[in-house]
Amino acid sequence: MNKVISVLLIAAMIGILSCRKDKVNTAVKPVEEGEIVSIEPQPFGTNLSGAEFGSNVPGQYRQDYSYPLVTDLDYFKSKNMRLVRLPFLWERLQPALNGPLDPVELKRLTDFIDAAAARDILIIPDVHNFARRMVNGNKEIIGSPTLPTAAFVDFWGKLAGVFKDRENIWAYGVMNEPFNMPSPTSWFNIIQPVIEKIRTIDTETPILVAGDSYSSAERWPRVSDNLKNLTDPSQKLIYEAHIYFDDTSAGTYDGSYDEEKANAQTGVNRIKPFVDWLTANKKRGFIGEYGIPDDDSRWLPVLDNMLKYMKANCINGTYWSAGPRWGSYRLAIQPRGGVDRPQMQVLKNYISTDPQSCR
Q: Which part of the chain is the Glycoside hydrolase family domain (predicted)?
């Protein structure tokens, strides 16, 4: 961000990188809303997939979906990647709208979060539903008569009650990638009451606000500008964008590097509209997803240049993705046969932001 910052204090230890300064002595916390950058280092990390898998919802555990393993946590801790975005599905955790959280599924989720805490790893619980969920066998959009906003508010009220005292929750990932909302104000009108509900239960944990149109960083000023008017009594909102480098920005990488029309600055060019928006509105940003294929080394400088730009602007993020169920997925950084994936050549160089060098 193009602004000189005065750094009063930089933590001497950044190993734990927690949000809860009152509970963990070596902790750091995200910047509060209204500041341009944090005076504390913020961690980079990865998504750990598996709990969001499966088209059969709710599905059968270990067949349709499963949570990542503690060995996955151990591996990424060894790489100093201490922030994990953990995707899961609303339907599995709360089978009936406005009903209780399923105790078996909740234990799977909290057991993983607690295993991460034991390893000093921070977690973003990410509701990976794209502003939709299954209701009576049909996929419905939040805010519709069949899936009212109040049901989503109820869900997050119950989740916040579970998470509020856990020290290693970096931020609440309220919803992954809303898209094709009925009107330009639909997502704003959904997320505002969720923020208000969470704050009646938890005033400390930051809240991640995903942008519309699949959280596109490139399209953010056009499709998500009104989110700057959201209010948080705790002033701890963090705006979450996603970015991919293929021609459609969808992250499918259907063609070759040349066919995708990529170059070394593609990532920087696509993230810049979001960064400029953050700067203009004095908001805090985060990149929840970015990833590259493992089969062409020309993608590595694209990733490296974008991460360098993010770090220069005090924006951290989580790579998409890792987890034991990916198989041969080209973007995955899950090690194969004990061997690091090519993307780790770049990712290992980005552990945390450095406020002393931020613009």
A: 61-324
Residue 37 covered by a domain? no
| pTM of this prediction exceeds 0.85 | yes
Domain of residue 305 covers: 45-357
Can you tell me the mean pLDDT for 313-340?
98
Residues 298 and 262: beta-carbon distance below 8 Å: yes
In a domain, 99, yes or no: yes
Active site residues: 177, 289
Say if 4 falls within a structural domain.
no
- Paired residues of 169 in beta bridges: 123
For the stretch 140-144, contacts whose Cβ atoms lie closer than 8 Å and that sit 24 or more positions apart, written own/partner, are 141/181, 141/182, 142/175, 142/190, 143/181, 143/182, 143/186, 143/189, 143/190
pLDDT of residue 167: 96
What pLDDT is stored for residue 10 in this prediction?
A: 33
CA separation, residue 297 to residues 253, 300, 321, 341, 345 (Å): 14, 5, 18, 12, 10
Residue 37 one-letter amino acid: V
Q: At what angle do helices 70-78 and 103-118 cross, to 10 degrees?
A: 30
In angstroms and rounded to an integer, the radius of gyration of the C-alpha atoms of the chain is 19
Lowest mean pLDDT of 7-21, 29-43, 127-141, name the range: 7-21
Which pLDDT score, from 0 to 100, does residue 358 have? Answer: 79
In a domain, 344, yes or no: yes
